[in-house]
Amino acid sequence: MNKRFFTIGMAGHIDHGKTSLTKALTNVDTDRLKEEKERQISIELGYAPLYDDGEIQISVIDVPGHERFIRQMIAGVAGIDLVVLVVAADEGVMPQTREHLEILGFLGIKCGIVAITKIDRVEEEFIELVKDDILQELIGTVFEHSPFVLVDSLSKKGIDELKHLIIKMLKGMEPRDANGPFRLPIDQVFTVKGQGTVVRGTVYEGTVEEGQPLIILPKGIEVRARQIQVHYQPAERAFAGQRAAINLSGVSKEELERGDVLVSSEHFTVTKTIDVAIRIVDDLKYEVKQRMPIKCHIGTAEVMGRIIFFDRNELKEENGEVLCQLRLDEEIVAKRGDRFILRRPSPQETIGGGWVIDPNGKKHRFGMKTIEELEKKKEGTPKERVTKVLTEEISAGFKELMKKTSLDEETLKHVLEDKSFVFYNGKEYTLASIVNAVEEEIYSHLKEFHAASPMKQGLNKAQLLQMLQKTYPRTLIEHVLEKGVESGVFGRREQFVFLGEFLPHVPENWQKRVETMLDELKTDGLKVRYLTDYIADAGIPDNLVDDLKKYLEEQGFVVRLNDQYYWHSDHFKEAFKRLKEHTGTQFEIGDAKKALNLSRKYMIPFLERLDALGLTKRVENKRIWQ
């Protein structure tokens, strides 16, 4: 799969024009609820398709701006790749704008654009003042060096410029990981009449297919993906980075809620205790005290819990990361590296945010020894370090892995014995999940090729390599192909590669005409017309002629004498047999003409074909049987 999928978010203060801007970009009104229309504010997350071509597909999330809807805002932002920070020209930076900026930073969003909206409402000089104000607020944030675009959603000023900038920036970004297990944190659950339960969310990682068995965590409910929709259109698959709605069988709407996670593997961790690294906001109003109640927003879940420190009893100011633990009241699904936000339940404020060091947190003693252990854990287990390098590099040699993981030789050797890693071509390692992904891509390309060209025996190997080498090393592709041939998943004949179960065949709607054509060719014996004449008489279209001629020859239905004349294979065998019976160990053209009673226009191509097949050898004017 070469296409990449991204989701962008609109963030900013209430009534600064996020929904209007989304509509101007996409022609979709994301305020769906009646109360949203009445109150003219976004309560739920709104989604719309922004752009789709052969290279990338982009969706937009319109994030609610009102402080009461901070949970929905976090749920939306947690799954996006780029943020458009919306600031109204007639109001400038507001308190919620600052809070959103902090949340975006804690969630690891690295790519942003600042859109100054409602520019038709103010004088040009005032826009410059607003811009300076925003620049001051952005110092030290992820948006510090972000580009600015001036827009007005009603007059459409700047809309095309903003859209082109979004596309350009995303085309330069790496997509989310579509390999490995599938994970979708659920942010909406609803029912469709006659269809049953539907969940919606952003695919964090992996790929999901129609009919695939899945699991709802942390509840452990087994379900199946009956149908998939992307942008309200049916889809066979949904990939990391896409917004998807999935119709599930085996579960009712009442059993599910926002915060549940739809996964393809039981290997995801369900936990209530996580070791974390956090940063706090710059202007924290109240101290964060040991074992203080907190509200943790992770993925689309909102869970109460307590914060546990191991090197202090309170936290007021801190520039760097603080290593600590969250003990939650309810189970969540978490993975190392997942981002989260911490909020104070009362009085409500954002405390900070961070990332998960270890989702399987254990009880630790208070003291610096625990901090030292957490520091080591923060660097990652040896297996996690190797996995991270190979995820980024696709493949690497042993020495390169030692250098990039900082692991000693013995530790690295032990880690690489794990089945998660694959050693190939005598010198390189890769991930088993990447090998599976390469095999799936080869299978997909071949399946697509066979559907388009059913009469061809296979795809040229060089062409297949060219398709995949943009993503994977050639040596890895060849390794996967070789293993696939050994297992029968793929087949190879000369330079052609094909699916193991595939047999070349004439498209069903032309089979009878091809049979009629072959019958006429056989009826004419050795004194045939041009093969293209038979094909034309049968009413077979010109665009199939080349493939059909090659197919008939490769499958042994006909034998080519030259580019024009072909004999039915039965007659070719008969002519060969008769010629051999009526000549000695060697013969001349005159002997052949007597034996077969053929003119030179057929005889010469026939004899030359015998030479080409190695059945005879020409020596001056004579031919010798081989």
List keywords for this structure.
626 residues; alpha+beta; Rossmann fold; Elongation Factor Tu (Ef-tu), domain 3; 8-stranded antiparallel β-sheet; 6-stranded mixed β-sheet
Describe the structure.
The chain has 626 residues and is of the alpha+beta class. The protein folds into 5 domains: 4-171, P-loop containing nucleotide triphosphate hydrolases (Rossmann fold), CATH 3.40.50; 183-263, Beta Barrel (Elongation Factor Tu (Ef-tu), domain 3), CATH 2.40.30.10; 269-379, Translation factors (Elongation Factor Tu (Ef-tu), domain 3, Beta Barrel); 381-505, Arc Repressor Mutant, subunit A, CATH 1.10.10; 519-528 and 546-625, Arc Repressor Mutant, subunit A (Orthogonal Bundle). Helix content is 33%, strand content 29%. Strands 7, 8, 9, 11, 12, 13, 15 and 16 form an 8-stranded antiparallel beta sheet that branches. Strand 29 (490-493) and strand 30 form a beta hairpin. One of its GO terms (biological process) is selenocysteine incorporation. One of its GO terms (molecular function) is translation elongation factor activity. Keywords: Cytoplasm, Elongation factor, GTP-binding, Nucleotide-binding, Protein biosynthesis. Its main location: cytoplasm.
